[in-house]
């Protein structure tokens, strides 16, 4: 369905959905503390091509993941992480069995796991807040691993493809450099990204895997899709298409001390011209609010419209959504296995 003809173009969004920001990096080879193929690396490959040239075995690891059939993960026991969010869990958590994320076209899903304890953190990164997210993931996993047997830290990267603007390539470089700058050794065990995750075929390039789940008890990572992505998606997605002090942050959404999903509190600035954006056709929204319009999932435009409508109704979330500056908490319902709101 096409929208009405307009005489003026909607104002530019401050954060275009899935747009890559702060990604320009120095592509020279630098020293690092990432372990590659079990050996502490002296040099940091900031592209998948450079990684494969030095360590071709990563191609086989990616191929194993790509050969696995995607699982459709139901709601019970799922902790879903949206874009610009992260979460960390332990295997004995009674509320979570799988942590995961999907819809990562030009984004990259990052997993950090402690082999000794099984503690795992997962983030869905788009280029905003990458360095801070990398540091937080490692810190959270280390905190959760206290008191457990020693074990290596493992890093797995999935998502992104050889997109026309090379957003995923820049993001991969930024992620690698962010972990390099940390003062811990971390073993890169999987890099199914960029060219290793690109299907060429007869048409345009497209990502082969856009979502993964991690079985937190077994520690296995697998391709996945998630029909139910958890509560308050319009609110959570609003940060990616607005400006404000919290819009560029990667927020931790899980409180391990109480076993609850935690949303906010955060604020964003009113979106100028949101009414005009909502008048546009689906094709217009797809072309202007995605960095990869040719490969977005079918629900992309619908989700954007719902998010824009939420922003229209709540231009000042600090007043209407978080009036007492308290997070929204959700506990796991014992009967349904789904998240239900509670006052905490």
Describe the protein.
The chain has nine helices and 19 strands. The strands form four sheets. An eight-stranded mixed beta sheet has the order 2-1-10-9-7-8-5-15, sandwiched between helices. Helix 7 (282-288) packs across helix 8. A hairpin with a 6-residue loop joins strand 11 (198-199) and strand 12. It has helices at residues 48-54, 57-66, 130-144, 167-180, 233-238, 274-278, 282-288, 300-313, 317-320; strands spanning 34-36, 39-40, 71-72, 78-80, 85-89, 98-101, 108-114, 120-125, 153-159, 186-193, 198-199, 206-207, 212-215, 221-225, 251-252, 254-255, 260-263, 328-332, 339-342. By secondary structure, it is of the alpha/beta class.
Topology of helices and strands:
Layout lengths: L33 E3 L2 E2 L7 H7 L2 H10 L4 E2 L5 E3 L4 E5 L8 E4 L6 E7 L5 E6 L4 H15 L8 E7 L7 H14 L5 E8 L4 E2 L6 E2 L4 E4 L5 E5 L7 H6 L12 E2 L1 E2 L4 E4 L10 H5 L3 H7 L11 H14 L3 H4 L7 E5 L6 E4 L2
Parallel strand pairs: 1-10, 3-14, 4-6, 5-15, 9-10
Antiparallel strand pairs: 1-2, 5-8, 6-13, 7-8, 7-9, 11-12, 13-14, 16-17, 17-18, 18-19
Pfam family, one: N_Asn_amidohyd
Protein name: Protein N-terminal asparagine amidohydrolase
GO molecular function, one term: protein-N-terminal asparagine amidohydrolase activity
């Amino acid at each position: 369905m096409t929208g009405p003809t307009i005489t003026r173009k909607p104002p530019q969004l401050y954060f275009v959905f899935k747009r890559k920001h702060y990604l320009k990096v120095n592509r020279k080879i630098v020293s690092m503390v990432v372990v590659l193929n079990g050996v502490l690396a002296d040099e940091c490959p900031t592209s998948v091509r450079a990684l494969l040239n030095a360590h071709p075995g990563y191609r086989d690891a990616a191929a194993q993941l790509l050969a696995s059939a995607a699982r459709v993960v139901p709601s019970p026991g799922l902790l879903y992480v949206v874009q610009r969010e992260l979460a960390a869990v332990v295997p004995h958590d009674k509320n979570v069995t799988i942590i995961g994320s999907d819809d990562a076209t030009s984004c990259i899903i990052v997993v950090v796991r402690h082999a000794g304890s099984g503690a795992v953190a997962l983030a869905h990164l788009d280029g905003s807040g990458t360095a801070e997210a990398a540091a937080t993931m490692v810190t959270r996993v280390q905190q959760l691993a206290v008191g457990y047997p020693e074990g290596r830290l493992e890093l797995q990267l999935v998502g992104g493809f050889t997109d026309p603007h090379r957003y995923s390539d820049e993001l991969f470089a930024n992620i690698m450099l962010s972990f390099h700058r940390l003062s811990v050794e971390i073993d890169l065990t999987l890099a199914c990204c960029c060219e290793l995750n690109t299907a060429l075929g007869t048409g345009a390039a497209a990502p082969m895997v856009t979502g993964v789940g991690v079985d937190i008890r077994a520690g296995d990572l697998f391709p996945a899709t998630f029909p139910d992505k958890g509560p308050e998606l319009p609110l959570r997605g609003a940060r990616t298409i607005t400006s404000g002090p919290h819009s560029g942050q990667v927020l931790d959404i899980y409180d391990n001390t109480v076993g609850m999903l935690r949303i906010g509190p955060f604020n964003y600035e009113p979106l100028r011209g949101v009414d005009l954006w909502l008048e546009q056709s689906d094709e217009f929204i797809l072309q202007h609010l995605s960095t990869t319009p040719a490969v977005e999932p079918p629900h992309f435009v619908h989700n954007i419209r719902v998010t824009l409508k939420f922003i229209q109704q709540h231009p000042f979330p600090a007043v209407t959504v978080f009036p007492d500056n308290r997070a929204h908490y959700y506990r796991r319902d014992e009967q349904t296995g789904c998240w239900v709101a509670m006052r905490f």
